Every structure is written in C-alpha cells, then in structure tokens.
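To the team - protoporphyrin IX containing FE complex, inputs and output below.
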Amino acid sequence: MPPRRRAGTLRRGVGVARSRCRGRGIAFGRPRGTSYAINLRLYFAGLSEAQWLEHARRMEPRPPMPWWNLRAMSDEELSAIYRYVRAAGPAGRPMPAALPPGQAPAPPFVQFP
Ligand code: HEM
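Output:
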C-alpha cells in the first residue's frame, strides 16, 4: 500500500476510535426492565488494565450485554480492547441508570426481544 494511502487509513481509524464507545444513550427495553450499554471510554478511564482483566472474567451485567463472550476471550484479546478504547481517551456522557419493569425509557430505544 503506498504511504499516502496508509496515512489516510490510519487517520480514518483514529476518527472511528474517537467517535465510538461514547455511549449513545440507546436504551434496550425488555419486559424485565431497561438497560443502557455502558460508555466504555469513561468506564476504562477509571480502571487499570489489571482491574479490567479481573472484572471481565467475573461480571454478569444485565441483558443484552453478551458477557459470556468476554469471559471466553484470552488476556491478549481483553487487553487489546482495553488499550484500543483507552487510546481514544475519555469522551461522551455517562449512561442513565437501568430502569425497572413498567417504566418507559426516553426514546430512542430498542425493544428486546
Ligand atoms: C467488545 C464488546 C463489549 C465490551 C468490551 C463491553 C463491555 C461492557 C462493560 C465493561 C459493561 C459494564 C459491566 C459492569 O461493570 O457490570 C457493559 C455493560 C453493558 N453492555 Fe457491554 N460490552 C460489549 C458489547 C456489548 C454488546 C454487543 C451489547 C448489546 C448488544 C452490550 C450491551 C451492554 C449493556 C446493555 C450493558 C449494561 C448492563 C447493565 O445495566 O447491567 N455490550 N458492557
């Protein structure tokens, strides 16, 4: 790949890293309540890599978070996720607290299942 194109690809990659993982505020509404995917850029800012490796193997957050997939990852894979998100730096806002059944979330939300 010529050097100019590679530089463009790298710049786009950084843009993607900066624009994601901020927490979009999209609620996952379900009969058992509503959960919000966490803002990983804020979350990782307060966590060491060692704490992340420990926590990723123990946590069982609410659905639809597929925590069992993280648990099946190697230390190298979990570290790669951590370093990627940390490199983007903290950004965005904290997500709202989960809601109990019967409380309607503010739009936008995704109805699960
Ligand atoms: C590599 C991918 C992912 C990573 C590293 C990740 C990481 C995390 C972490 C660290 C938490 C906080 C858990 C805690 O401390 O108790 C969380 C929560 C959450 N995640 Fe993910 N997640 C990923 C993918 C997903 C996907 C694909 C979804 C949905 C389709 C999702 C939905 C959620 C939701 C709804 C919560 C909040 C759960 C609660 O309120 O208890 N996550 N995630």
